[in-house]
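In this section we walk through a basic example: taking a raw amino acid sequence and producing a predicted 3D structure, encoded as discrete structure tokens. The instruction is simple. Fold the sequence below.
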Amino acid sequence: MVPESYYTALSAVLFVIGVVGVVTRRNPLVIFMSIELMLNAANLALVAFGHRFGSPDGQALVFFVMAVAAAEVAVGLAIIVAIFRVRRRLSVDDLSLMRW
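The resulting token sequence is shown next.
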């Protein structure tokens, strides 16, 4: 039996890796994957805390987070593909020039 503290520590490590990926990278696809990694780390923490306290509320909340993440993937990838078709390259620095 693996203690819940291991799952919490793994969740924290995954979340930190995701934050580092968002902060240091300039490619929108890598930033997008890092955000998904942070969402999955939060899901792992929710399930671990739900198991620790004997409540299924954490698992129920994970389903809602996964539904939001699926919608985010669909919309985000569509935006990234549309920008790539117009500009033929992807860089967050170039995308910041598109502001008003």
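Looking at the output, two observations stand out. The helical segments are 4-24, 28-53, 57-87, 92-95. The chain has four helices and no strands. In the next section we compare this with other chains.
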